Structure to design on (404 residues):
């Protein structure tokens, strides 16, 4: 008969606890190695992204510096209304098909063609009075012509009103006594611009001899229905097209360009935002104004870098960039999307003074992704902390068993 041995029982329990601790710890190590890195890609993996593929195309990783910032700013300025369309002098008002004309003709006394002298009033003849012909308003036909009594069909399309007056008086010369003509453009159907989209009243705006500008047309349409800082404006002229935030057009008078006939203005409600991810104080989609914000301001709006997690060399901005903005920095074989863009990752290392100036000059774009990678030692710290908590839990379980 075997005698009861408490030490043996305790030894078995301790062994069981140790085996349990080892098994749980081993499983935790295996799982931790595959899960604790889930905060996002590391700085090194992003910098090596040019060796990977994005939709079967290479990703370009570009370090932010003076040369890159200079190219980006120059490209942005080159796509402004002021650069794309310029500010040429006001074009003369000419007549076109569909316009309404008011034509009046006068003849000096003694009127021969359009009137008669005044009747005799007894004490001599009263001076003769000038006579005029009343011609109904008429629309310029598709052939660009109008009909004038005793003159016939007159081609007026593409002419100024004073040029049409000269043609009429020239044709009446010899038939009327010192004829005079006055041509007035009553309704201009061809010298107009179209404004539509997110405005109070879409329609056509007639251009006067004064020379209306972009914001004049917007005011004629009643302004935007949404906030100015959340609106973009697109100007199309022939094959040329440019888009700008409305707030930038208002703030820079150079972009309030003069309009030309057949221009099309489209106003859109476009809230601007970027997404902040990684080791920042707050992961969120962050709206910003149409006037734009810098990378420094963007970091400020998300509370800056997380002091305990962030890698100061790992500030990245992911963007689908226009190829023309960084073309010399790209590989010749770099594929481009149908709309002329390439996937780019801009990297800013904040461990030098130059980067603090660069982040003030780098402007965020709508749809950008701001990502702050985690410092290399943070994942190890997280792992050790989690392992320590597990180990203490196992020890506590063993103590509880021993005390039973």
């Amino acid at each position: 008969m075997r005698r009861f041995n408490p030490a043996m029982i305790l030894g078995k329990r301790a062994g069981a606890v140790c085996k349990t601790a080892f098994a749980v710890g081993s499983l935790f190590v295996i799982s931790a190695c595959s899960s604790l890195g889930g905060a996002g890609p590391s700085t090194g993996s992003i910098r090596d992204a040019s060796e990977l593929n994005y939709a079967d195309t290479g990703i370009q990783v570009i370090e932010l510096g003076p040369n890159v910032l200079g190219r980006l700013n120059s490209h942005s300025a080159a796509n402004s209304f002021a650069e794309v369309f310029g500010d040429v002098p006001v074009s003369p008002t000419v007549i076109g098909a569909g316009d309404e004309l008011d034509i009046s003709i006068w003849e000096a006394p003694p009127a021969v063609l359009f009137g008669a002298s005044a009747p005799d009033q007894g004490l001599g003849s009263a001076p003769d009075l000038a006579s005029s012909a009343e011609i109904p308003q008429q629309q310029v036909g598709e052939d660009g012509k109008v009909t004038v009594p005793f003159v016939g069909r007159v081609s007026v399309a593409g002419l100024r009103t004073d040029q049409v007056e000269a043609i009429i008086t020239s044709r009446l010369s010899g038939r009327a006594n010192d004829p005079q003509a006055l041509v007035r453009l009553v309704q201009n159907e061809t010298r107009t611009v179209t404004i539509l989209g997110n405005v109070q009243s879409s329609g056509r705006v007639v251009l006067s001899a004064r020379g209306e500008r972009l914001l004049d047309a917007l005011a004629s349409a009643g302004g935007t229905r949404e906030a100015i800082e959340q609106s973009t404006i697109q100007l199309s002229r022939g094959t040329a097209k440019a888009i700008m935030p409305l707030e930038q057009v208002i703030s820079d008078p150079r972009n309030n360009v003069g309009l030309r006939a057949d221009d099309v203005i489209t106003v859109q409600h476009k809230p601007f935002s970027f997404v902040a991810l990684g080791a920042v104080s707050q992961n969120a989609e962050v709206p910003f104004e149409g006037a734009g914000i810098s990378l420094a301001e963007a970091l400020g709006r998300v509370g800056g870098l997380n002091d305990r997690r962030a890698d100061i060399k790992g500030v990245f901005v992911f963007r689908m960039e226009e190829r023309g903005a960084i073309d010399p920095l790209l590989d010749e074989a770099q594929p481009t999307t149908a709309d002329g863009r390439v996937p780019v990752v801009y990297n800013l290392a904040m461990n030098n003074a130059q980067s603090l100036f660069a982040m003030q000059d780098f402007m965020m774009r709508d749809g950008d992704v701001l990502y702050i990678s985690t410092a290399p030692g943070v994942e190890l710290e997280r792992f050790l902390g989690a392992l320590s908590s597990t180990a203490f839990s196992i020890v506590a379980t063993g103590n509880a068993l021993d005390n039973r």
About this structure: The two ends are 25 Å apart (CA to CA). The first strand starts at residue 60 and ends at 63. The chain has three domains: 43-63+272-379, 81-88+191-269, 100-187. Residues 6-35 form the longest helix (30 residues).
